[in-house]
Structure formats: structure tokens, C-alpha cells
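Here's what a typical entry looks like (Sigma 54 modulation protein / S30EA ribosomal protein):
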Amino acid sequence: MIIQVNTDKHIEGREKLSAEVQNTVEESLAKHRDHVTRVEVHLSDENSLVRGGDNDKRCMMEARLKGRNPIAVTHKAGTLTMAVEGAANKLETSLGNILGKLKNHQNPAVREMKTAMPATPDEMAEMESATEIEREMEMKDEPDQDSKC
């Protein structure tokens, strides 16, 4: 899983912050590691250093799943650490929900039904010809009703 951290020009200590963000994301998404190929993290200070204010730190995370559309979450908080942790928790919850739904749709009963059903017209034709051959063989094995023993 690749984790890319981006910051705006108002964020200081980018290198240290980047390492902390990567650790937080890796810990939060550890159980979904096999499904996530990349996580992009965007950190920003919406009011910049000039104005300040409550909940002005924003963290947007986008996770890219194998074979699926990306999932994005955003969290605002008073500090960057809180914003990152909040976004990581939201992303973990979203991934759990999406991957759980996919798992439910791929339960064994559904998979058996899918494999039992022919997928192509060629497979349908094969099944029909096999059925016809079986019928012919059964007819040969049955004694003639007209002939008397």
C-alpha cells in the first residue's frame, strides 16, 4: 500500500508530519491492506496562519481499491493530528462497509449458483448437446415396448 502525503503551503514540518500520517494510516487500514493499493492524504489549513480559528485543519484521504472506484473522506479538526486520525477512522469505517458488502455478495451459495449457470452461448450449446446424447443413450438402454419377450 502506497501512502502519499500532500500539504498546502501553510503547513509546517512536512517531513515529520508525513511520517506520522503514514503511521496513522498504516495502523488504521492494516486489516484492509490487501484491498488498498494507494492512499492519498491532503492536509490543509483552511484559514491559514493569519486568521486561525476552530476546526480549520482539514484532512482529506482518498483510498484506491483494487478493481474498484476510489473512496474519499474528509475530516476537519482543531489540530492536524486530530484531523488525520478522524479521517483515518472514517476511511477505515467506509472501507469496512464497502468490503463487507462485497464479501456478502460473494458468499458460497451465490458463487455456486454462478458457477452452475452457463456463462456463454457456447456453454449452453454444449449442455444441450450433452443432454441430447444422454437422452439417446437412455432410449437405447430401455427395452422396446412393442417387442414381446
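The longest helix spans residues 80-105.

More examples are in the samples folder.
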